[in-house]
Amino acid sequence: MDKLKNYILTYGNAKDTSVLKVDSFLNHQIDVTLMEEIGDDFAQYFQHKKITKVLTIETSGIAPAMMVALKLKVPLVFLKKNVSKIHNQDLYTTKVHSFTKDIDYELSCNALFLSNEDHVLFIDDFLANGEACLGAMRILDQAQATLEGVGIVIEKSFQKGRSLIEEKNIDIYSLARIQKLDGEAIEFL
Amino acid sequence: MDKLKNYILTYGNAKDTSVLKVDSFLNHQIDVTLMEEIGDDFAQYFQHKKITKVLTIETSGIAPAMMVALKLKVPLVFLKKNVSKIHNQDLYTTKVHSFTKDIDYELSCNALFLSNEDHVLFIDDFLANGEACLGAMRILDQAQATLEGVGIVIEKSFQKGRSLIEEKNIDIYSLARIQKLDGEAIEFL
Known about the structure:
The structure is a homodimer. The first copy, chain A, is an alpha/beta fold. The first copy, chain A, has helices spanning about 1-10, 30-45, 60-70, 130-145, 160-165, and strands at about 15, 20, 30, 55, 75-80, 90-100, 105-110, 120-125, 145-155, 170-180, 185-189. Chain A is built from 5 helices and 11 strands. Helix content of chain A is about 30%, strand content about 35%.
């Protein structure tokens, strides 16, 4: 998606060889016209699948996933990190490691919101080592829901996430695939 | 907003006299057509203000705030809870107490995304004791930005949040105002 790549080149900040900051348009301040085009692009790519729900993970996945769900006219479910004390009903849960923050966290989903009748499109802002996406897939397994595809806004293609997902024969579609981060330089695949 | 009130009556769960769970359409699973109407309603109410940015707080504020920002065609900024280690630039920060979760947390915003030229509409999913909204107002004070209004999806009118905001002469508009929660019963103002 050319507009997204231009935003990354113009406003992105490659802190080092692994961290790309896109706080000014994707995950702190959000450019709504870009989000709308992202929603359109994902919805068009996955329109032939019979998607019943869009799934993402709080926090940064919500804005792009919201736009996809709006276009596909299906509910959005976001997985929660940690478990708040007022959510003590039946939950699907799984532990995930974040390499970016070097912490473990728990993903959870109220069992009411995913079932074996659901055909799910998982959307996230970043794909790096694939830990978050694999965690979401474990939640979907617990729900016996069908994962129809994975849509990623920015893929760090030099990390192993894509290959781990492709190994499971999941259709993965990324709007921008980054081959290399090197201080100021950002190279796309 | 009648549709929202119907959703609250049909799908909401009054756990006790203070906690209302709306996980099935607002803050875990999200009904996108309801969100779109919420965005339209807020945008219409605040359209005469010269809003330059919509502001909310992660996580549950993002979906409704996103729809408002989309309608007003301005950027959305969401305040972060806690500070991640890859955000070490100039920050506005303030401490907030959550009565629901009985914890203190820190709200923060990259200083690049709010300035003294901004005219801000603050949107949140709930208003109860007003702690989160007052925290956002302290962040806006640090940025010397102008708060043009507060839009709340569900207001617990039996708690003190509204009066604390009105004391500051801020225009506050809530889509559903709840007068009383009592086990199963939910009464609107």
